[in-house]
């Protein structure tokens, strides 16, 4: 790996969403709208409005969302070089997303959609599990026609969210352009139901294009049918670096003959939203700055531990001094 002085740059691509974070008192709302607990379900504009209306009296907040967008935000908070490609509408939600990213020095490559910006109702159960009812809106209009070699030329890594697997033409088109331009490709599998819905296609993408795979234990099992350790072995045969996250047990990393088991930091979980996304932030930032794979995993774990102690997928400003101190110890 290269010296940290030659920091590499990372571009993310995925759904540009605004998360509306709702603290549930019980799981009745999930049952009411047929949302499988712990999953991401795509909903239309009408159902999205009904979910948000039904939860309007509950405690809630708003922040930028989307899996790859969360990862890129974490990289920017680590002071990494980053950009994001997505599509929003010129409305309140779209403007909120764009300004939030510009404020973090993220290069926003945001195209204008013809329908309202995407919104994810993020429903947080009392046991801290999160369930998404996602209206993609303008994010769903992102197409291969929007993309060009120029968009990717200034970056070293591409991070892509597994949710885009729903659009075969788009995700394969993105991966072809990125590979053509020499980028190292990182994929987060995103959700077990995404993997289950399109496992054959996803397997081909990993084998043909992807260098780094992030999966949690549910996603790894949906992908391979195996428990974490064996799933890690199988995924590592298909790409250069495989990571399986195992919750409070930490994470497993394998690349060729190199293997590391990284312990999690024991903390009280309030909300697991974004834990996997910011784990990827730490890991990819580490790679871009020449850290060992084990240190990359440790940094990912440090970020994940911070985010699960708060509501939402954003690590609060007051946590960063301690994170940077820990990062110095990993270099």
Structure, explained:
Residues 62-317 form the Carbohydrate kinase PfkB domain. It holds the Pfam family PfkB. The mean pLDDT is 94. The chain is globular and about 50 Å long. The chain is built from 13 helices and 14 strands. The protein has one domain (9-15, 65-114, 140-330): UDP-N-acetylmuramoyl-L-alanine:D-glutamate ligase, CATH 3.40.1190. A hairpin with a 5-residue loop joins strand 7 and strand 8 (130-135). Helix 9 packs across helix 10 and helix 12 (293-307) runs antiparallel to helix 13. Strands 6-5-1-9-10-11-12-13-14 form a 9-stranded mixed β-sheet, sandwiched between helices. With 331 residues, it is of the alpha/beta class.
List keywords for this structure.
331 residues; UDP-N-acetylmuramoyl-L-alanine:D-glutamate ligase; 9-stranded mixed sheet; 5-stranded mixed sheet; Carboh/pur_kinase_PfkB_CS; kinase activity
